[in-house]
Amino acid sequence: VEKYAFREMSEENFQSVLSDLKNRKAEHEKEQERIRLDNERLQKEAKEKERKAKAEREANEKALAEDRAKADADGIVVDSLKYLIKTAKAEVKVDLYNQLSYEFRNINLERALNYADSAIWLTQKINYVEGAGNGYMNRGNYFKMTGNTKEARSCYIWGYIQHKKVNNLKGISSAYNSLGGLNFMMGNFSRSLGFFIRSLALS
Predict the structure, then answer these.
(1) CA of residue 8 relative to chain centroid, distance
(2) How far is CA 150 from CA 116, 132, 153, 196, in A?
(3) 85, 86, 107: which is closest to 94 by C-alpha?
């Protein structure tokens, strides 16, 4: 009798056990599918990250090559200007100093300032007003780029005054434009617009 009862119990539980095994198998397969999808997602993310990193490296390399090419070109210009200074007459030498100051603004700010000062100093000896105006504009650029907005404004105004003395419209327009850019940088947008409009009116 006991043997029969055990056999009957096993048969009753068989379907339940089988159903439980099927459910476990289904859950296992679902978990495996989730893992597979996660792996695919991670692989795609890794590939996309590598693609972006590669694109960024290539862009940086291109920018570096362009900077080197520009530096080489700037170097040629600077060397030419330095050579010309040796034999130039006074006013031309002032213009060359100012041109060197302009060229050095993105290479070496301190040297840019030195060349601007040299131009201004020489103009005082030969009374070359337009050259002095350009020298003060270059000084203003130095102080603007180093964050000294008060001194930059003063230099731009002095540049404007020099150009105004000889009615150099191009120089006056440049002074207005520089004051407009300086005021824009300082957040004085309405004043900046006024200077830009004056500059355009003379250009």
Answers:
(1) 84
(2) 18, 20, 5, 19
(3) 85
Return the pLDDT at 70.
53
Three-state DSSP state, 19: helix
Question: Within 13 Å, how many C-alpha atoms sit on residue 90's CB side?
Answer: 12
Q: Find out whether 146 and 139 touch, Cβ atoms under 8 Å.
A: no
Lookup: tokens for 42: 């991670």
pTM tops 0.85: no
Helix (H/G/I), strand (E/B), else coil: 130: helix
Closest C-alpha to 133, from 105, 102, 161: 161
The contacts of residue 142 (CB under 8 Å, 6+ apart) are 105, 109, 112, 113, 116, 152
CA distance 125 to 198: 32
Instruction: Report H helices in 86-148.
Output: 90-103, 109-126, 129-145
Q: How many CB atoms lie within 10 A of CB 111?
A: 15
The token pair at 72 is 């080489």
Nearest to 181 by CA among 154, 152, 203: 152
Could you give the CA distance from residue 180 to residue 186 in angstroms, rounded to a whole number? 10
10-residue stretch averages of pLDDT, the chain, 203 residues long: 47 66 80 84 81 69 54 56 68 88 88 93 92 96 95 96 95 96 94 94 87
The DSSP output letter for 128 is -
